[in-house]
Amino acid sequence: MLDRMRPAHLALAALVTALWGVNFVIIDLGLDHFPPLLFSALRFLVAALPAVFFVGRPKVAWKWIVGVGLALGVAKFGLLFTGMSMGAPAGLSSLILQVQAVFTAVFAFLALGERPGRVKLTGMAVALAGIGVAAIDEGASSSLTGFLLVIAAAVAWGVSNVLTRKAAPPDALNFMVWVSTVPVLPLLALSLLVEGPERDLAALRDLDPVGVGVIVFIAWVATVFGFGAWGWLLRRYPASSVAPFSLLVPVFGMSSAALFLGEGVSPLRWCAAALLVGGVALTSLTPKRDTTPEKPLAPEPVAP
């Protein structure tokens, strides 16, 4: 229960979700310096090196590391960064990505035989209604294509979550560092093919302290520190005590985007946020008696 967590650990959980929320603003800033696929490749390169030399050997089979690396690193982040580069706002992206909980539940049913109960099904319907409201708002204001790419990123995240559940890594930091080694070369190849070597070389030639700081924050602070701290909390406390903090990510994401990027929040977007957060809460945090899981499962990672 939350009241059994020490105040310092409560603060740590809140700090991690705040960093993950602010990370969407940092991504938006980074997209001014790098093409999206190159940006994603650099993020994973710096997250993997030099950490891979200090975390020890992988603690799960390579098939899971490669599978999650492709689904999470190449598909999810490639789509997310591309969607944001095409106009999906940072704050809205932090919110829309949370629908991954719905896709995770669907894929867990198809692949793991986890049948959602009535409360979870209700939560999924509420969250999808929130997506519909957000689509109406986004279609009237900016790029619907970017919005759809962020939804596709949430689908890919759902796939990676199910693969992570099957892998059941005993050490979240070790797993994330090794997973980070997988997407680098595929993303670089896609960047050269789609974005072109001239654009990539120009971004690297023009690299400045802001660009370096963006990569370091996303790779070391949001990824290495964030996953390390989150995994440490999950090992120390019940998942039911830690998981609710993940609902703060879009709160920090939308508020920081409004503060630092001047993104407005329309009444429709507030409505979408309420529906999505409420639906994800019902989908992710339902009591065990409402579901029939194949085995006890930790909550999915929530970092952007």
TrEMBL record:
Q: Does the keyword Glycoprotein apply?
A: no
Q: Looking at the Swiss-Prot or TrEMBL record, what is one Pfam family this protein matches?
A: EamA
On whether Aminoacyl-tRNA synthetase is a keyword of this UniProt record, the answer is no
Q: Where in the cell is it found?
A: Membrane
Q: Which residues cross the membrane?
A: 34-55, 62-84, 90-112, 119-136, 142-163, 175-194, 214-234, 241-261, 267-285
User: Could you tell me which residue ranges the EamA domain spans?
Assistant: 11-133, 145-284
Classify the source by domain of life. Bacteria
Cross-referenced SUPFAM superfamilies = Multidrug resistance efflux transporter EmrE
Q: How does it sit in the membrane?
A: Multi-pass membrane protein
Q: Which UniProt keywords apply?
A: Membrane, Transmembrane, Transmembrane helix
Q: What is this protein called?
A: EamA family transporter
